[in-house]
């Protein structure tokens, strides 16, 4: 008997790996990319992030709008999916885009199932980020993970409870 849950998890994992070099760009008006979208979006990224971050336009394998119906005049434009040739360049772009104050926003391109999972714990993560306790995981030895809890500036190490 085939385990449906295992197959579904494997498919989600494979889809996530295939989207590893993709970013989703939101806020670019429709139909301005012209006949060569990869070159256009490459130049947009250089203009948006500046010459100090990207000295040359990044090499993009693909660039296209999401597969939704073209919006009517005045509606929100469809997001753009760009696939970077190099993962390091994609990571640089997403890291620097977080520091930008721009109407154009850049996000990771997650599959729908992962987006649902991330939405489910978004409120909890926001509360953790805003709380005074900062939580991080460290590894003292290869077999002994510990939690480092910082409260009011004083770090404490604590072994996790066995599960």
From TrEMBL:
InterPro entries: Transposase_22 (IPR004244). It comes from Muraenolepis orangiensis. Residues 145-163 have a biased composition (Basic residues). This is Uncharacterized protein. Residues 140-163 are annotated as: Disordered.
């Amino acid at each position: 008997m085939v385990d449906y849950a295992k197959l579904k998890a494997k498919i989600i994992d494979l889809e996530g790996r295939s989207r590893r070099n993709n970013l989703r760009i939101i806020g670019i008006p429709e139909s301005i990319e012209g006949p060569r979208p990869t070159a256009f979006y490459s130049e947009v990224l250089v203009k948006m992030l500046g010459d100090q971050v990207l000295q040359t336009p990044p090499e993009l394998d693909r660039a296209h709008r999401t597969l939704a119906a073209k919006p009517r005049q005045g509606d929100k434009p469809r997001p753009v999916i760009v696939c970077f040739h190099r993962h390091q360049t994609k990571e640089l772009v997403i890291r620097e885009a977080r520091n930008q104050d721009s109407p154009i926003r850049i996000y990771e391109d997650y599959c729908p199932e992962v987006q649902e999972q991330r939405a489910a714990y978004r409120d909890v993560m926001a509360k953790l980020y805003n709380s005074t306790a900062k939580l991080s995981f460290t590894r003292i030895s290869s077999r002994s993970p510990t939690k480092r809890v910082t409260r009011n500036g004083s770090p404490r190490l604590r072994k996790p409870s066995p599960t």
